[in-house]
Structures are given as C-alpha cells and as structure tokens.
Automatic annotation (TrEMBL), chain A:
This is Branched-chain amino acid transport protein. The keyword Transmembrane helix applies. It holds the Pfam family AzlD. Keywords: Membrane, Transmembrane, Transmembrane helix. The chain crosses the membrane at residues 6-27, 39-59, 88-106. It comes from the Bacteria.
Automatic annotation (TrEMBL), chain B:
The keyword Transmembrane helix applies. It is found in: Cell membrane. GO terms for cellular component: plasma membrane. The keyword Membrane applies. InterPro entries: Brnchd-chn_aa_trnsp_permease (IPR011606). This is 4-azaleucine resistance probable transporter AzlC. It comes from Alkalibacterium subtropicum. PANTHER family: INNER MEMBRANE PROTEIN YGAZ. It is a multi-pass membrane protein. It holds the Pfam family AzlC. The chain crosses the membrane at residues 20-49, 55-77, 137-156, 163-196, 202-220. Keywords: Cell membrane, Membrane, Transmembrane, Transmembrane helix, Transport. GO terms for biological process: L-valine transmembrane transport.
Length: 107, 233
C-alpha cells in the first residue's frame, strides 16, 4: 500500500473520529449551545444538496439538464420520489442504479 | 456480557446489516475501481467507517483529487455526527473511556438512528446499543472487503455503481427536509454549488456552498421564530 493512501486513510479517520467521539465524552455533563446546534442542523441538508447538484447537473464537465444527453437527470428524479416515499437508503439506491443501468443500455 | 444482551442487540441490527451488506459491496467495488487496494479498503472501513465518505472518496480519488481536499470534504460530510454524538451522550454516562471511544468510532447514521429510538421508547441498555453498533460495523467492514474482491475479479460499469452514491445522498438529503428553512437551505445549496462549480472548477465550491447555505437556513429560521413571536403579540 502506498504511503499516500495510508496518509489519506489516517487523515479521514481523524476527521471522522473527532465529531463522533468528543461530544460523547464532553457533553455527558454540559449541554451544547442551542444556537450552535441549530446552525449545525443545517449542515447535512446543505452538504448533501451541494454534493448531489454538483454531480447530477453536470455531464462531461459541463452544465446540462438535457434528459437524454445527461442520463443522470431521469434516475435522480425517480430516486427523489422513491426516497420521499420510502425514506430507505437501500430502496433509493436500488431504484437509482436500476434506472441508470436501463438508460445506459437503451440510450 | 449476557447472552440476552447479545441476542437483543443482534435482533436490532438485522435490518441495518442487510442494507450495509448491499451498500458495502457496492462501495468496495467503487473503491477498488478508483485504485484503492483490497488491504486499503479494509483499513479504510475499519479505521474510518463512514459509508457516504468512503463512496465520496472513491469518486474523488478516481477523478484525481488531492489528498487534503478529500480529507476536507470527509470532514464536512461527517460533521453531522456532532449532533448525533451529543444527543446520544446522555444514555452512555458513567461508561469507561474505552467504551466511549469504541461507541463513538462505530456511531454511524443508522446505528445512531436505531439505538436512539430504542433508548427513547423502551428499556435499552448501553451494552445492547454497543452490540448493535459493533455488528453493523463488522457487516460494513466485511462487505466492503468482499466488494473489493469482487471488483478485482470482474469488470463492473462504475458510472452505474457510482450512481449508488448519488442515490444515497439524494435519500439522505430528503430525510433532512424537516422544516421549510431546511428545504430552502437545500435549494440555496443546489444553486450555489452549481454556479460555484461552473465558475471555480474545483471542489472547494462545495464547501463554500455548504457553509453559506447553512448560515442562510439558520438566519431564515431565526427570523421566522422572531416574526412568529411578533405576530403573536
């Protein structure tokens, strides 16, 4: 294994462990500030939206909403509906991957 | 640890383990295709243990992203665990440092979800929660390794496999639509990330979009609360 991938894994491990462990250790006595925790509650929705949008609206590095040129558009709409109805990661993933596979084969 | 504890922890983790096996195999395939070896996949799952972050790492490494920018994205992606760790902390008081370390390390979205709801609704002990978390952790680690081995034996279309990540993110985003302010923050983040990605052509655009959108959501919610109070006066 290259030293670069070791550095990558250790770096990821540290930045993941800190937010999972320290609140557990420190907050059994103290409460988290309400305004900080309200701001924090907007981080997940913002980061997931940013990750999704920067991927599905681009095809071969340029912005595209054309449903047949950018084949991620239709599966994404489908996944959105499935996710909203089922709230299940597994079903969303199955629906998305199947839709992508079908479009890839037929287009 | 008593057998009863192990059994009830195991029953709680069954549905999560099933979905972790499917997602883990997909993640292992994506990572192997990005050039991460099976040994490195094992180490990553065992030491990092963060599904969404590992999928993201696969797609960023495949695109040739630099190590610091991958770590920065993983940091922002996993910051959400602060809230989970803080809210579950009251149920694991008086536990040893080692217990808290392992419980924190294995605190995934799903382990938090199942344990937190059990702590609230029934007699659920910290040991049962630990069994559930450890089983989920083992299922994830083993299935990503299996995915890596499958990826090394067969050629699998990664455009399609990588889409599993996007589907996962769409679902995780939808589950965060808990108020109007959260939906607006999501929409703002979509617009900002598209515009900034097109302009900057660098994934720092996502970090900027996330931070700005979260402040806008927070500001809107604060103003809505104040407006509501004024309207009631």
């Amino acid at each position: 294994m290259s030293s670069e991938s070791l550095v990558l894994i250790l770096g990821m491990a540290i930045v993941t462990f800190i937010p999972r462990f320290f609140p557990l250790l420190l907050l059994s006595k103290k409460e988290i500030s309400p305004s900080f925790s309200r701001w924090m509650s907007f981080i997940p929705v913002s980061i997931f939206a940013a990750l999704v949008a920067s991927d599905i609206f681009f095809w071969e590095s340029s912005f595209s909403l054309h449903p047949f040129r950018n084949i991620k558009v239709i599966p994404s709409i489908l996944v959105f509906v499935v996710a909203y109805k089922t709230k299940s990661l597994l079903w969303s993933m199955i629906a998305g991957v199947l839709a992508m596979a079908l479009l890839y084969i037929f287009l | 640890m008593k057998n009863v504890t192990v059994m009830s922890g195991m029953r709680a983790s069954m549905p999560i383990m099933a979905s972790y096996i499917a997602l883990g195999i997909a993640c292992g395939i994506v990572l192997y295709d990005a050039g991460v070896s099976v040994l490195a996949i094992f180490l990553m799952s065992a030491l990092v243990y963060a599904g969404a972050a590992q999928f993201l790492t696969g797609s960023m490494v495949a695109l040739g992203a630099a190590v610091p920018s991958v770590i920065l994205m993983v940091f922002f992606l996993n910051l959400r665990h602060i809230l989970m760790s803080a809210s579950i902390s009251r149920y694991v008081k008086n536990k040893s440092l080692g217990f808290l370390g392992l419980f924190g390390h294995t605190l995934s979205d799903e382990s938090f979800g199942i344990n937190y709801s059990r702590f609230q609704t029934e007699h659920w002990t910290a040991n049962e929660a630990m069994v559930t978390s450890l089983l989920n952790y083992s299922a994830w680690t083993l299935s990503t390794v299996l995915g890596g081995i499958i990826g090394s034996q067969f050629t699998i279309n990664t455009l399609i496999m990588n889409y599993a990540l996007i589907a996962m993110f769409i679902c995780m985003m939808v589950m965060q639509f808990v108020s109007k302010a959260h939906i607006i923050a999501g929409i703002v983040s979509v617009v900002l990330s598209v515009v900034l990605t097109a302009v900057l052509k660098h994934n720092i655009a996502l970090v900027i979009a996330t931070v700005l959108a979260s402040f806008i959501g927070y500001y809107l919610e604060n103003n809505a609360v104040e407006g509501g109070v004024k309207a009631n006066e």
